[in-house]
Specification:
CATH superfamily of the largest domain in chain A: Response regulator
Strand order of the largest sheet of chain A: 2-1-3-4-5-11
Number of helices of chain A: 12
Oligomer: homodimer
CATH topology of the largest domain in chain A: Rossmann fold
Largest interface: A-B, 59 and 59 residues
Number of domains of chain A: 3
Order of helices and strands of chain A: HHHHEHEHEHEEHEHEHEHEEHEE
Helix content of chain A: 40-55%
CATH architecture of the largest domain in chain A: 3-Layer(aba) Sandwich
Distance between the termini of chain A: 72 Å
CATH class of the largest domain in chain A: Alpha Beta
DNA sequence: ATGAAAGCGCTAACAT
DNA sequence: ATGTTAGCGCTTTCAT
């Protein structure tokens, strides 16, 4: 290994070291065009022993192609988004494309900023969580001239394509399952619904379906931050103190549901006999709990995979834009929802 | 909004629309150099209403600066790395720099590939988990001519700088705490130690300290995949069936420890009276459990923050390279370790 | 199968 | 305060 110069190596260095033109070196390094086995060998050896690392900045500028897919999500601490990422990565693995993540913390202004940053790298496509964006963000996405897939949610009109589930329907179906299991006095706990549009839509679907069954939510409580498991405990305890007659608790996510469930079991409640519980997401993490919480699969990995596949197909074929893929989440009754 | 052309907008478009030279447009958009308020205004208006998004590819090539920090970590599903990311993001927030994540899945060959990919974008710095890398990876890092901070671990020689904790010491200190609390018949459960070097080092420190106290591990079990909580349950149950005399269980992470703890409580074990438990990481997620597992803080967010700060200072001052920052994790006895 | 020339969209450096 | 010129390190295109 030569003493590391300050200047990074260029194609020219490899060209000189191997006695082959820059152009041919470039061809070898990208496996494009015909190159004789002999020169190929020479170049590869020279590149390797110089420790040459191509400059994608220059390559991208020259070729006008950037093999990056911008993935814009609200959070990484959430368990659900890492799984979406897994789906995306798997789908992209075989291709040239690479995902790059940006995080918005559920804040529209941050989403706008992150989107702007990412678009300025001229990615080949965008996968972005949710259907709700600021006007500026929508304009950027619409004007970027690249495939855009909005994920997680299908309740609304996508800019280009969408893959997700209907959260309104998810809430509705859970309400129906609860009603037909005979529960009637229902409490709800969840995150503050302001910025989490999907949680809000579930709640709307839930209350609408209850209303159709002549039932109203008896008690509800919202939280903003803190450990979800702990919040679930606290809120559940408070709610049961306030409204001891409740016979079902619907949580906007599995973590707070699990917190509530643990508290219930400790207190000796008869679950799901006298009171039932349900969450949302079907997070694998919790599969080690003594009792399994009723929940609904949010199809996270499949959403990621399908979204990436749409990007890929848009980039090769001229697959028609405008398609929405709505996946169907299943209720998983676990041990906390009476069966009918 | 004009009909979206296929061709993305360039500085030239803004220049023409505003009647100002490209160079001045560039200055306005970057807030550099002196520009009169009047022209500034003109440019900003033109740019906004065209919907111009700068091309960072071109900018980076021209300026030879890329305001990206490559962050290379083993996994995102782990809870610990998202927290490291939080620390990094916070520290970088005020600066021009932006983190970009690459994931290795704990595989050296994938690490090498990801590193190569990231370096080919010529980032301003690298933050990479662990001190163990393939020769090729080490060579790339050493030769990249940019600040490199290896994080999480300080048991070894860094390429450039390092921020982390000594996992050997962590294991040792936990062993000492366990011994001085009077426990003697100790079982260990953890991930297969092959590729998780930090877990291995904790184990080594742990057994070494036990040996110094004349104690040997009585039983041990390793797992590879699956839900950690569930694995913790299963392994604990199996181990207690096999070795009912154990009076302490040390887990290589909090999640399997929590699984074990839940099982123990269900079975009615007297924890920490007849048997103690401890994990590692101090993950906040678990703070809603009925009983708090003894654990040790792995200083994740601070590690991220300090690493990012080192990159920043290297980029401005010529802060001396070669420094290792060793943080001191504290034992948090929770409710599952007798106090002395 | 290989090479030469032109230029991708910006910014550094130097005018003015 | 603003403009002009010359590249950044590659790849495209066209020769040979």
């Amino acid at each position: 290994m030569p003493p590391s110069d300050r200047r990074p190596l260029t194609l020219r260095d490899v060209s000189e070291a191997s006695g082959v033109s820059e152009m041919t070196v470039s061809r070898v390094l990208r496996n494009r065009g015909d190159v004789s086995a002999a020169t190929r060998e020479k170049v590869l050896i020279a590149a390797k022993q110089l420790g040459y690392v191509p400059n994608k900045i220059a390559g991208a500028l020259a070729s006008q192609r950037v093999n990056l897919v911008a993935v814009i999500i609200p959070s990484l601490g959430n368990l659900v988004f890492p799984e979406v990422m897994t789906g995306i990565s798997r789908a992209l693995e075989e291709s040239e494309l690479q995902p790059v993540v940006g995080v918005t913390d559920y804040q529209p202004d941050k989403e706008e900023k992150v989107l702007y940053e990412m678009l300025s790298w001229r990615p080949s496509g965008v996968i972005i969580a949710g259907l709700e964006h600021s006007d500026a963000a929508r304009a950027m996405l619409a004007g970027a001239g690249i495939p855009v897939v909005e994920i997680m949610d299908t309740d609304g009109a996508p800019i280009d394509a969408a893959v997700g589930i209907s959260h309104r329907r998810a809430g509705r179906e859970m309400a129906q399952a609860i009603l037909s299991a005979g529960y009637r006095r229902i409490g709800f706990m969840g995150t503050k619904l302001g910025l989490d549009h999907r949680a809000r839509k579930r709640f709307e679907g839930f209350t609408a379906a209850l209303a159709k069954g002549g039932v109203e939510i008896e008690d509800q409580e919202f939280y903003t931050d803190g450990s979800a498991l702990a919040k679930g405990r606290e809120m559940t305890q408070a709610m049961m103190a306030r409204s001891p007659d409740l016979d079902f608790l619907y949580y906007s996510n599995d973590m707070i549901g699990a917190g509530g469930l643990l508290w219930m079991k400790e207190q000796g409640f008869d679950v799901p006999g006298t009171i039932g519980l349900a969450g949302f997401n079907d997070v694998k993490l919790l599969s080690g709990l003594p009792v399994k919480l009723a929940t609904m699969d949010s199809c996270r990995e499949e959403i990621g995979r399908r979204a990436a596949e749409i990007i890929l197909s848009r980039l090769t074929n001229e697959a028609a834009p405008g398609d929405t893929v709505e996946l169907s989440p299943r209720i998983n009754p676990g041990d906390t929802l009476r069966l009918t």
